[in-house]
Amino acid sequence: MTGPAPEAPEPALARGAGTTVVPADALKWAPSGSTGFKYKDAAGTSDGITGIKVKSGAANKAKALVKGKGGDLDDPVLGNLTLPVTAQLINQPSNVCFEGVFDTQDVIKNEATQFKAKAQ
Fold it and tell me: Taking the mean position of all CA atoms in its chain, how far away is CA 86?
């Protein structure tokens, strides 16, 4: 059967961190060891994002961590998220996408204030 592709679910949260790179944003990114990068903005001036860490690893073992806070960061609807949960970190200028899909065995917390998962 052919037809239009099903619509993708709406994201619970979509934010940027230095997506429009200006000199001040570029200075917030720095190498982290020999295998990663980090973004630090204690004030959360870019959509409330205060930190990002990305690290390469063996096949299917890369790591991405995003933290945010404050009034510029909308509160996503959390708590009992329907699984599987797909998390994406997209570099808009290059269109590179890092994606993780987390199902029951991966979930550490699925609560009203936090979703935390680690791929097995």
Answer: 10
84 half-sphere exposure, CB direction, 13 A CA radius = 11
pLDDT in tens, 36-84: 999 898 888 878 888 889 888 887 778 888 888 888 777 777 878 889 9
| SS (HEC) of the chain | CCCCCCCCCCCCCCCCCCCCCCHHHHCCEEEECCCEEEEECCCCCECCEEEEEEECCCCCCCEEEEEECCCCCCCCCCCCCCCCEEEEEEECCCCEEEEEEECHHHEEEECCCCEEECCC
Q: Which residue has the higher pLDDT, 67 or 19?
A: 67
CA distances from 112 to 76, 77, 96, 109 (A): 9, 8, 30, 9
